[in-house]
Specification:
The chain is α+β, with helices and mostly antiparallel strands. It has a single domain, classed as Ribosomal protein S6/Translation elongation factor EF1B (Alpha-Beta Plaits), CATH 3.30.70. It has two helices and six strands; from the N terminus they run ββαββαββ.
């Protein structure tokens, strides 16, 4: 089972054109971990960062490979996790979180 570790560092989030943001809303560690695993296993996804915006409120920031259609990948990921993807969150301050898959 994955655990979620909160890192107490605030940073400005700026996303490139190859990135997608998915709000996971509120959920427990197991639900968030399962959605993280689904997204991370997508063949067009290069990397995934889990961000904890507040207690029990999580976002996934997904970086896709440059040669992939971001809109197609976004549609696939929305179906996988059952949530709508957000547009860029440029300039929003967030707390970074990491999933520990031990």
């Amino acid at each position: 089972m994955a655990s979620i570790e909160r890192i107490n560092s605030s940073k400005r989030l700026s996303m490139s054109n190859d990135e997608i943001d998915i709000c996971l809303g509120r959920g427990d560690d197991i639900e968030v971990s399962n959605k993280y695993d689904l997204v991370a296993s997508h063949p067009s996804v290069r990397s995934v960062i889990l961000r904890k915006l507040s207690p029990d409120h999580f976002h996934l920031n997904i970086d896709v490979f440059p040669n992939m259609s971001v809109s197609d990948v976004r549609a696939d990921l929305e179906q996988l996790v059952g949530r709508k993807c957000h547009k860029k969150l440029a300039g929003k301050s967030v707390n970074k979180g990491i999933i520990n898959l031990e």
